Amino acid sequence: MVVTHFHLDHVGGLFYLAALDLPVEIWGGGEVLEGTPTAAVVHRLLDSPFAPPGFVHTFGTVHDLGVGAARIGAFGVTTRVQPMHGNPTLALRVEDALGWCTDTAYDPENVDHVRGVRVLFHEACYAADETDDSGHTAAGEAARLAAEARVERLVLIHVDPEHDDDEALLAFARPHFAATEVGVDGLQVDA
């Protein structure tokens, strides 16, 4: 599992990984994002009093993920720091298969980072053409980035949980990038 940053809405699920009864490796950018090793941050989140004593040791290993190229299992992963959020976050590229950009305002440097990937997962917190939010992206901005990066497919993620109309997101995105859809639980993607 790769953690893009340590806000609670992105790490709350770590607790449930122990139920998989599999060795779990956690990768994160603790050092490059927060100046603290990822293992130390994970221990803070999964140790007592937030979890039973020793709970964090039910996981496999915790690794730091720096900026640039890395190998995670069978996959080549490239990362870059996205500075446009309350705390910096990691953008991910998994070979030419997919790009992952979440919790960031529109960041033109992500264009080169994800250029040519088959599927780009990009946050679209707002059903709008653009936003002045300094930490999140609108659907139109994500779609323009996808078009400029010449990706094959765009999946909008990290949408506002209070919106109930995916069509509104698509109405702002598809004029800029037709091959756009909204991510849903259970979505299967051939990348």
SSE topology sketch:
Blueprint: E1 2-3, H1 8-11, H2 14-17, E2 26-28, H3 30-34, H4 38-46, E3 62-64, E4 68-72, E5 75-82, E6 89-94, E7 98-101, H5 109-114, E8 119-123, H6 139-148, E9 153-157, H7 166-173, E10 180-182
Parallel strand pairs: 1-2, 2-3, 7-8, 8-9, 9-10
Antiparallel strand pairs: 4-5, 5-6, 6-7
Helix pairs in contact: 6-7
Q: Give the CATH architecture of the largest domain.
A: 4-Layer Sandwich
Question: What fold name stands as the CATH topology of the largest domain?
Answer: Metallo-beta-lactamase, Chain A
Going by CATH, the homologous superfamily of the largest domain would be: Ribonuclease Z/Hydroxyacylglutathione hydrolase-like
Please describe the biggest sheet, giving its number of strands, its sense, and whether it closes into a barrel: 7 strands, mixed
Termini distance? 18 Å
Tell me which oligomeric state these chains represent.
Answer: single chain
Number of DSSP-assigned strands: 10
Mean pLDDT figure: 93
Widest beta sheet: strand line-up: 4-5-6-7-8-9-10
Could you please describe the fold and organization of this structure?
This protein is α/β, with parallel strands linked by helices. The chain folds into two domains: 66 residues, no CATH class; 106 residues, Ribonuclease Z/Hydroxyacylglutathione hydrolase-like (Metallo-beta-lactamase, Chain A). 24% of the residues lie in helices and 23% in strands. It is built from seven helices and ten strands. The strands form two sheets. A seven-stranded mixed sheet has the order 4-5-6-7-8-9-10. It has a three-stranded parallel sheet with strand order 1-2-3, with helices on one face. Strand 8, helix 6 and strand 9 form a beta-alpha-beta unit. It is globular. The mean pLDDT is 93.
